[in-house]
Amino acid sequence: LQDGELKIWQGETTDVVSSISSTPTYAPTLLGSIPSMGEKEALEALASSDSAFKNGQGDWPTMKVQDRIKCMESFVSQMKETRNEVVKLLMWEIGKTLPDSEKEFDRTVEYIYDTIKDYKELNHEGARFTKVQGINAMIKRSPLGIVLCLGPYNYPLNETFSLLIPALIMGNTVLFKPAKFGVLLLSPLLKAFQSAFPKGVINVLYGRGREVAAPIMKSGLVTVLSLIGNSKSAIALQDLHPNKNKLRLILGLEAKNPAIILPDANIDLAVSECISGSLSFNGQRCTALKIIYVHESIADEFNKKFTAKVDALKFGNPWEDNVFLTPLPEPDKPNYIQELIDDAKANGASVINQKGGERSENYIFPAVLFPINKKMRVYHEEQFGPVVPIMIFKDIQEPLDDMAASDYGQQVSLFGKDINTVAPLIDVLVNLVCRVNLNSSCQRGPDVFPFTGRKDSAVGTLSIHDALRSFSIRTFVASKDN
Ligand code: G3H
């Protein structure tokens, strides 16, 4: 999709391959291909976005609220027709289980409806008019300009749309680059984009970041860089912009969310929440629990119950019944996870579950590592995959000090019963992270809740409410009673 037209791509293409084998002897499956765009096509797409925004004078940025809503409603109703196709591609391209793929699709549809609802409220008459000291003010939220939007592979639909949809509805024009994995699943949606939005309002960039996103950033025309992914890419792209003062950043980055299990915690509850928290979608979630701190008095019991449950998790293809662990889309990930395991072992940890580290071509069974210390890579790195480090603490000050020293600050899970211990801890934890989950695992949703982080974990906030504000600027028209 370029310049609002669906074009038949004549140039070179890149194969899209699934790590899931469709043959009894393992062989990755060829799913299709995408255009290999280069600098020339990227700059054409940029010119299209620029002429649609037209320095704020284009049809889209000046369109009435009701008309923009109609475009968005038209898009979402067409999108719903693509559910089966998109869900199938979510399974094949990134290995997400069928229930989770369906959930991702449905959650995204709901996200769009909630965005429309919030956008209406934002523009509701009562919210817009105010009179102070004889001056009437009509408050508006106005678009910022051209938004470059880059989504992650683990939520190629939902998270990408949590940038794209608010950016669009606020009247910006959007250049959007999908992640390396989870890219074909956008194809069924291209027609809906084309028919719902005016020409040039949305352009899709297929290709490598350095070939398509870099020249766009260098142009200096991008007003907002919105990215969910790693800070290395965010910093590299940001540095290419010739005038950083003119660039707004909306970023969802790395995290190392801890679980802290206090001596009086309900251990069975903590075990089941830590399983889903650390290993849903094979741990490939920025909100995943990436380190577990367990009090020394309950470590044996917790470890025994936790490892038994991990070993009972079913591995298989995403569409199989009750499957929990699935093939990893990134071919190099098992090697990386193995490196973390080897390093932890060399520094004094053991793999404490029986199946931990078992390998197949594109998969490694989750390894539970214990006891963790700060010499280990897995203590410092965001593993984003199937490995669960467990660390012992004697005094609650130990995990608190570690969190304070960490580069990250997204969320924490706190397990404990005694309100007199938990309540003062919450007062501290909210100053270290942005969401404290009591007796439950970390998660982003529901999508109306603020999604952000401290330190290197985020810039800006991505709930629906906040995202509408992040992708716009507050303006107003002032007049006096005559
Ligand atoms: O990768 C990070 C995602 O935002 C995680 O979202 O908590 O809904 O799985 P989730």
From TrEMBL:
Taking every annotated instance into account, which residue ranges of this chain make up the domain Aldehyde dehydrogenase? 27-472
What sections of the sequence does the record tag as coiled-coil?
none
Q: Which PROSITE patterns does UniProt cross-reference here? A: ALDEHYDE_DEHYDR_CYS
Keywords attached to this Swiss-Prot or TrEMBL record, sorted alphabetically, are:
Oxidoreductase
Q: Which Pfam families does UniProt cross-reference here?
A: Aldedh (PF00171)
Q: Which domain of life is it from?
A: Bacteria
Report the InterPro entries cross-referenced here. Ald_DH/histidinol_DH, Ald_DH_C, Ald_DH_CS_CYS, Ald_DH_N, Aldehyde_DH_dom, Aldehyde_DH_Superfamily
Report the PANTHER family cross-referenced here. Answer: SUCCINATE-SEMIALDEHYDE DEHYDROGENASE, MITOCHONDRIAL (PTHR43353:SF5)
Q: Indicate the family of this protein.
A: Belongs to the aldehyde dehydrogenase family.
What this protein is called in its record is NADP-dependent glyceraldehyde-3-phosphate dehydrogenase
Taxonomic lineage from the root: Bacteria, Pseudomonadati, Bacteroidota, Flavobacteriia, Flavobacteriales
